[in-house]
Structure formats: C-alpha cells, structure tokens
Specification:
The structure is a single chain. By secondary structure, the protein is an alpha/beta fold. It has two domains: about 150 residues, 3-Layer(aba) Sandwich (Rossmann fold), CATH 3.40.50.720; about 90 residues, ProC C-terminal domain-like (ProC C-terminal domain-like fold, Orthogonal Bundle), CATH 1.10.3730. It is built from eleven helices and eight strands. The protein has an eight-stranded mixed sheet, sandwiched between helices. Strand 7, helix 5 and strand 8 form a beta-alpha-beta unit. The longest helix is centred in the last third of the chain and has 22 residues.
C-alpha cells in the first residue's frame, strides 16, 4: 500500500517536518515513508520515530514531499515520477516549479514552499506558491501539511527567494544573536546557565510582544529606551557597529544565494 506521503530527503529540514507532522497528529508513522540515502541518518530517524518506515531508495507514491539538495532535485524527481509521483511539495531552495515540472509527466502538480526548522516544534513559518498545474485544492493540500507545523503564507513564486533569506535562514540569525548575548552575559559576570536562561526568556517574551501587541518593532524598542539610559547606550553602540545594516546585507546575501541555486 502506498504511503499517504513520501518524504524524500531525511536531512535537517526533512526530519524536522517529519517530527513536526507526527507530533501534530497530521500523520502516524504508518502514513509516512522517508527515503534517505545516508545510512546513519536513516538509523537516527528510525530511533527517533519507532515504527517509521525509512528506506534508502524511492518507493511508489503519488504524493511526495521533496527535501533534497538543489543539485540533485531534478534527477531525483525524474526517478520519483517513474515510480508514480504526480503531486510534489518541494522545499528545495532555489529550484523553480518550472524546472521541476519539466522532468515530470504532463499535468503533474508542483507546489513550492520554504519552511524553517521551528516546524520541528510546531512553530515554523513557510512561504507557499503553486506551479502551473496547481489548483486551489493542491495548495490546500500543501498548506495542510505545512500548516500542521506552523504558519503558512501564500505568495507569488518570485518572492520565495526573499522568504528564504528572511525566514528560511532566519532561525540561524536569531540563534547567532542568542549566542552573542549569552557570551556577553558571561563576560559581564553571569554564570553561563543564568545568562542562557535570561537570554532565552528575553527572546521569547520579546517575540510574544511583537505578536500579541501588534505594535511595530520601532515602537516597542522606543518604549524600552529611556533617554540617556542603559538601553540607549546599548542601542547607540549597536547602531555605531552597523548591526542593522549587517542584518540587511545578510538577508540580501541569502536571497542572492537562493537565486544562484535556481540558475
């Protein structure tokens, strides 16, 4: 019996989505099959999800979640099409739906998305767009998968590179900020575990304020920045070091890299 969904690629993003889908109750281990070429990763997936079918090669399935490296996406999909794949949700960075459709039988459906790793805990966010043959029902199908592990935003495919730069790579930016703040706390005399607790709680609380108040980041920053105070001194230093510009340039670099992968 064919699985409800064949997940091709059990690396970081593929395994995060598998874990999120199972945790959210979207699927049971019997509904999913994961195809992963790396033997060590197959063992890790089997250990993490007892009963999950994890195989080395493709199996027959109509619906596929494609989570492989960009340089192998088209040959892998060609093999999957020969095994019955007719509807694909691709989370492959940079590779257009047109390129993927070109290696599949006429009328096959491709939906592209760019999720991020917080999908593992049901807190992901993904941009979603449909290819030429995708209908509203196909978009609903894809959104049902990604919506089980977070928020989904539908948008034109031309904007997916920007999604990649902002939210696809975004968790790494936040983790880098967390690293730096923890180290700063330790340098200022805090025990590492206390510094970590303070930083994590600060990031969580700040994110909730952005979400729940609906205020703009600049408004919330101004509210905590008293004239001549400690926060003003810190923000002045960050601006002097061009941190804002560095983030803008970092996102732009990620967007450009996503475009390069698609060429």
């Amino acid at each position: 019996m064919a699985p409800t969904l064949l997940v091709v690629g059990g690396g970081k993003m593929g395994s995060a989505l598998v874990g999120g889908l199972l945790a959210a109750g979207w699927a049971t281990v019997g509904d999913l099959v994961v195809s992963e070429v790396d033997a060590g990763q197959r063992q890790r997936l089997e250990a993490a999800h007892p009963g999950l079918t994890v195989v080395a090669g493709p199996v027959e399935s109509t619906d596929v979640l494609l989570a492989v490296k960009p340089d192998v996406a088209e040959p892998v999909l060609l093999t999957l099409a020969a095994n019955g794949a007719r509807r694909v949700l691709s989370i492959v960075a940079g590779v257009s739906s047109a390129r993927l459709e070109a290696v599949m039988p006429a009328g096959s459906v491709v939906v592209r998305a760019m999720p991020n790793t917080p999908a593992l805990i049901g807190a992901g966010v993904a941009g979603l767009s449909g290819g030429m043959a995708a209908t509203s029902a196909d978009l609903d199908w894809a959104e049902g998968i990604l919506g089980a592990v977070g928020t989904v935003v539908r948008l034109p495919e031309r904007q997916l590179d920007a999604v990649t730069g902002v939210s696809g790579s975004g968790p790494a930016y936040v983790f880098l900020v967390a690293e730096a703040m923890i180290e700063a706390g330790v340098s200022a005399g805090l025990p590492r575990d206390v510094s970590r607790q303070l930083v994590v709680a600060t990031l969580l609380g700040s994110a909730r304020m952005l979400d729940e108040t609906g205020q703009e980041p600049a408004e919330l920053r101004a509210a905590v920045t008293s004239p001549g105070g400690t926060t003003a001194a810190a923000v002045r230093t960050l601006e002097f070091k061009a941190v804002r510009s560095a983030f803008i340039e970092a996102v732009a670099a990620a967007v450009e890299r996503s475009r390069q992968l698609g060429r």
